[in-house]
Amino acid sequence: MSEKLVSLFTAALGGKLGNEVICFIISLFPILELRGGLLAASPAFLNVPMMKALPWCIVGNLLPIPFVLLLIEKILQLMERWELTRGFAMWLKKRAEKNKAQIERYGFWGLVLFVGIPLPGTGAWTGSLVAALLHMPFRKSMLACIIGVLMAAVIMCFISYGILGIFA
Question: What's the whole-model pTM score?
Fold first, then answer.
């Protein structure tokens, strides 16, 4: 699914924006995040050199996280008031609840691993959502997300530029 979304973004934005900016924009979005940004930057798509793409993708993935940590509970409360958005708010809460036990059990390092290991349903967006709903301290949550995103960056560079780079 990520590859299809990356293809859609690169096709829609290609030629209109610089390749690094496209990687940054992709990294801002939940689901895609840094993983999608580095995939887009890889030789298989936009062929942005790794050392150019890396800072754009890291910053793009981290930029929304303080806002999620600080505001998501209030936003979810507002969304639950309106019938139109209530279902989505409940879905987000269920998704966070599903991952809550892992993070709660291991605390800081659980959040680092949850954000850092690039698997479907994990990442900085979901990790910060769970951290906020667990009322983890802001600084601790933010630091865990930063470490996790850096960990994901190393893993995804190997995948995007190593494994996928061979087939490009």
Answer: 0.91
